Amino acid sequence: SGTPPDPSTIQNTSNAPEPIFEENNAVNDFESCSPCKSSESNTIDVENTLPSAMMKKIFDYDFTASCGQFVQFLANVESKRNICPLAQEFGYLCGCNNGQRTYLGADTEAKRAALAWIPRVTGTLSLIGSILITLDVFKGSRRRVASIDMHKQLVLGMSIFDIFSSIAWIFSTAPIPTEFYGADQKIYGAIGNERTCTAQGFFVQLGLTSAFYNAVLSVYYVLVIGYNFKEHQLKKARFALHLPPLVFGFGLAFLALGMGLYDNSFLYCHVPPYEIKKTSGIKYEHQLRDLTVVPIAIVICIVFANMTWVYLVVRRRESRGNQWRMSTAVSGNNTDSGVARRSADRRLQLAVLWQGLSYMGAFCVSWPLYFGAVAHEDATEIPYGYWVVGVMLMPLQGFLNALVYFRPRLVQQYQKRKKEREAHHVGQCRARQQEHPAERPSETTYSTPTATSATGGATAGTSSYSDDPKQWGCGSRFLSSQMSKEGVDVE
């Protein structure tokens, strides 16, 4: 705990990368593994001398500091300094935590394994969902994008980039380099190198294009519901709808690639939330903010604003429709065709609205967690449970989109099968009644009995037929009338 060593006295003439700390000087006592505990100020200019020298030593300079020098240095650093999370991060090289690296709150092997394997499961679900959407969109379209309606085109664009990000999530920690400046990174499942890490980081960043397509999809609902755009009008504007997400998505991905920003982010390779590699004098947090935090924040605002506006438009129209129905009912100045047309238009608008809100819900399940993680200045302050929930939900966008995309079709099929079963049920009742015509209820005498005889038969004033669901398998008259109202022929 004396005067910190002068970095200029620590020399290394070799130009080859070496470990950050010498592992043979391991320090295992509790105080050494809990660095930066002092909150007292001191006379040393920590910010401009030793921390900057320490950062340069770790990220730029080719010389080695022993664990003893490292601990001596940390004893004079205030806990609020930015170097402290980094010191805690690499304490495992000096024997802390039994030589095991703690990251994102995962201080056991089981916790680190969970962070690596959960996104593989949810990423696989997302990949399957996105592939199913893609295949369904191209089915019957002669494999030409121009023949696909605009809504499906936008969902297709969203799904294609979800496929990229899902594959990147499935690889999980595997592409992360095994070594960092000659030291074992101790990331669970890491077997990669710099090239594999760069490739994964590029596709993770490219996957953000699906978020941009979410914003454009909300614009689509504004045009269709708010301004009554028709399909031919949307087709004319298709380049204006597709261009922004593609330009921003590919532009940001290649920008980060050109700047060499992709590196170990513990869960995968992307732009790290804080500096863990050579930065060439540029702050990583600013680059992360510009590449992810700001774009996602803008997308969230656009989606929320557009869908809120669409909801208010539909609600206002619904209110006007109710007033119109009341006035026409009083005056009698209405026609069946006009009422039916307006009712059909209302149902269609509501269906489109709820589908749009469902896509927004799928977006909000996945992306805000990612936004909250990367927006935080220090990932070490985020609890482990947050990351567990995050790796469950962040890769899940494609799966949730598939639920929204196929839901109307599944509901329609369910209702169709339900009607078929009920119609079959009514048919069986009719057949049984025809076999026993004497027991068919009379139109003039049928009523619900108010009392029964000792033998269980109907009382006077009713037919001899007992409308017991257990006897006939259904309440025939009631079910028949209900099926007639639903348009099923029961005669």
TrEMBL record:
<feature type="transmembrane region" description="Helical">
    <location>
        <begin position="293"/>
        <end position="314"/>
    </location>
</feature>
<feature type="compositionally biased region" description="Low complexity">
    <location>
        <begin position="444"/>
        <end position="466"/>
    </location>
</feature>
<feature type="transmembrane region" description="Helical">
    <location>
        <begin position="117"/>
        <end position="138"/>
    </location>
</feature>
<feature type="compositionally biased region" description="Basic and acidic residues">
    <location>
        <begin position="432"/>
        <end position="442"/>
    </location>
</feature>
<feature type="transmembrane region" description="Helical">
    <location>
        <begin position="351"/>
        <end position="372"/>
    </location>
</feature>
<feature type="region of interest" description="Disordered">
    <location>
        <begin position="417"/>
        <end position="469"/>
    </location>
</feature>
<dbReference type="GO" id="GO:0007189">
    <property type="term" value="P:adenylate cyclase-activating G protein-coupled receptor signaling pathway"/>
</dbReference>
<protein>
    <recommendedName>
        <fullName>G-protein coupled receptors family 1 profile domain-containing protein</fullName>
    </recommendedName>
</protein>
<feature type="transmembrane region" description="Helical">
    <location>
        <begin position="211"/>
        <end position="229"/>
    </location>
</feature>
<feature type="transmembrane region" description="Helical">
    <location>
        <begin position="154"/>
        <end position="172"/>
    </location>
</feature>
<dbReference type="GO" id="GO:0004930">
    <property type="term" value="F:G protein-coupled receptor activity"/>
</dbReference>
<dbReference type="GO" id="GO:0005886">
    <property type="term" value="C:plasma membrane"/>
</dbReference>
<keyword id="KW-1133">Transmembrane helix</keyword>
<feature type="transmembrane region" description="Helical">
    <location>
        <begin position="241"/>
        <end position="262"/>
    </location>
</feature>
<keyword id="KW-0472">Membrane</keyword>
<feature type="transmembrane region" description="Helical">
    <location>
        <begin position="384"/>
        <end position="406"/>
    </location>
</feature>
<keyword id="KW-0812">Transmembrane</keyword>
<feature type="region of interest" description="Disordered">
    <location>
        <begin position="1"/>
        <end position="20"/>
    </location>
</feature>
